[in-house]
Amino acid sequence: MIVNMKRMELLLYHKEREQFLENLRTLGVVHIVEKPQQEETAEVQVLTQKLKACAQTISSLLKIQKVQEISIPQLQECDSVEEVIEKYNELKGKIEKTGQEIAALNKDCSRLEPWGDFKPESVHRLADINVKMRFFLLPQKKFDTLDKKNLVFEEVNRIDGMVYFVVLERGESVEIDAEETRIGDISLSEIRKKIKDLQLQQKNNYESLNRMVTYIDVLRRYRTELFNKLQYERASLAMQGQASGKLLSLSGWFPLEREKKIREFLEKHPVYYTIRDPYPDEDVPVLLKNRPFSKLFEPIIGLYSLPDYREIDTSPFIAPFFALFFGLCLGDMGYGLMVLIGALIARYKVGPKLKPFMTLGIILGFATAISGLLINSFFGQPIFGGPGVGSAFFSTGVQRFAPLSSLKTESGTIFPAMSLALLLGFIQVFFGMGLQAYVRIKNYGLKGGIEPIASIVMVFGALVWAAHADFLNLGFGNFTVGPLNVGKLLLAVWPGAGKTMLWGGLVLYFLFNNFQKKLFIRPLIGIWEFYQFSTGFLSNILSYLRLFALGLAGGLLGAAFNQIAFLLITKDGVINYASWGIIGTILILIIGHTLNLALSALSAFVHPLRLTFVEFYSALSFKGGSKPFMPFAKIEKQ
Asked: Which of 8, 242, 499, 615 would staple 540 via disulfide (CB 3.0–4.6 Å)?
């Protein structure tokens, strides 16, 4: 849920600023409101640059420590933290420059190698006596047909179909139909010596850089110090001068539950203050407070935007849907168990910051395993057999344990998972419209919530009418999801009630859309909005078919890898596990399913995000865009 906020506004004497800010930072519960288009002072800019440089240095050193697995005692080669950062940047510059020099020399070395190791001075000595040595290369076929009668030449080398040769000339140059190359003033052996020296120098640079990981903790403490200084300076800038600068004003937000603590704090200081509720048009920072399960999904919600203060926290409502959608998209019990076990192992090895993500992985893996069981898939193979299902691990049980399994019938293949995807689409979109009605009623009163309520009533009435009338032979009355006959539930509603809901919802929709506008204008606007709603609603529901399509694609690809792998050990329809081909079978299974799991897991994460941020948020009329609640507090460790 979104924590209720209060606004604090105060005045204090300018000489009390430093002491008051220090005490306020110790309290650590107030989000300070910065000035509109607040200009940064030179000190703030310097602190920001230092903080950025320090963070980049720590990040790079952590990568080096992880890759090199460095664990050496603390060294004191630098006198200050600034010197550490300066030395790090110096070493990085040296490594980059030396690397460029080595690359250039390697290029020169490759160019000279076909000509052998000779001294360029000998070429210059020939030039001094008016003998010019020219270097050419030509494809072998062209070289063999080249007119060489008037040429004094010597073939040097033949490599990869190219002929390298030199021509000696005295006097004017002769035009030769071949590619001429220039030889520098340094020999091949000298180039190789330079490369060797630079490589040794580069090795020393990297060793010096590796030793700098011992300063990570020092840099972290320095980063925390810089962050606290920066926060203090920004808070100081947020104070606006009043009465010729003698008085300073400050505004901030704090959670409603901390009001008593804030009042006690302010009463102890020489300030004049007021505390009030937010105004309807104020930009209020958002603080989310959820139960452990929903809290795991807050980072996923943050990928799009935090909700507006006057909306609702979508985390508790998205969490079960996202886990279910992920499971259906991945749709395999074997893959689910792999994700589950991998996340369980990783949770005991990662740091505290990453543990919630591993817990989220456990939940998603469990959802995938359950979905795979219901869909009847274990690494692309059916688990339970029965009517319409073959080649399963167990000969029976599909109807009891896997109600979403695809079944082959005389009329074609039935896919209950496709029906489930459509049903889930209706449920989530309807749920979003219901939440939209709740938010509008909370903010604008009953009148504000009539439009989304009318939309729900109208759509449900249309479904009841379509089921009874067998609209366009679409089979609404026969719609089933495995053993669940949804169509019968629609047919159980009196047809007259369906028509009443349909027309009553239409009337309310046209009368109460854009309720802020005048009554006679609303029906005209409603025509366009109804067109957008009807077409958008249908496309949103059909978008949920991706839940079925992705699961089906992953299952078919997994089955294809199984078929290819077992072809290596199958002869005349009999599998021979003692065949030498079992090695290839195992390799294909491991590589194939690993690739399929990686691709399917990526799709299983991205597409539920899309359904959430587009279809569900559209039904919810989600606005978002709020800033996170960040209290002015002294950080002890980052």
From this structure: 615
Torsion, Cα of 508, 512, 513, 517 (10° steps): 150
Residue 471 to residue 487: CA distance in whole angstroms: 13
Distance CA 546, CA 303 (A): 21
Angle at Cα 42 formed by Cα 37 and Cα 46, nearest 5°?
A: 110
Encoded tokens for 399: 């109807």
Interatomic CA distance for residues 255 and 247, integer angstroms? 26
List of residues 6+ apart from 26 with CB closer than 8 A: 634
Q: How far apart are CA 453 and CA 449, in angstroms?
A: 6
Residues 6+ away with beta carbon under 8 Å from 637: 220, 224
Asked whether the beta carbons of 98 and 202 are under 8 A apart, the reply is yes
Q: Tell me the C-alpha distance between 322 and 605, whole Å.
A: 9
- Answer yes or no: is pLDDT of 608 > 60: yes
Closest CA to 418 of 562, 541, 595, 283: 541
Query: Looking at residue 2, what DSSP letter applies?
Result: B
Q: For 490-531, what is each residue's pLDDT tens digit?
A: 888 888 888 888 898 888 888 777 776 676 677 777 777 788
State mean pLDDT over 122-147: 85
Number of helices followed by number of strands (H, E) in the chain? 22, 17
Give one DSSP letter per residue of 261-302, joined into a string.
HHHHHHHTSSEEEEEEPPPTT----B-B---HHHHTTHHHHH
Q: What is the mean pLDDT of residues 238-259?
A: 79
pLDDT per position as a tens digit, 107-130: 888 888 888 888 888 888 888 888
Please state, in angstroms and rounded to a whole number, the distance separating the CA atoms of residues 497 and 548. 33
Q: Please tell me whether residue 354 adopts helix, strand or coil conformation.
A: coil
Q: Which tokens in the block code for residue 531?
A: 């067109």
The whole-angstrom separation of Cα 604 and Cα 324 is 10
Select, from the ranges 2-16, 36-50, 457-471, 593-607, the one with the highest average predicted confidence (pLDDT): 593-607
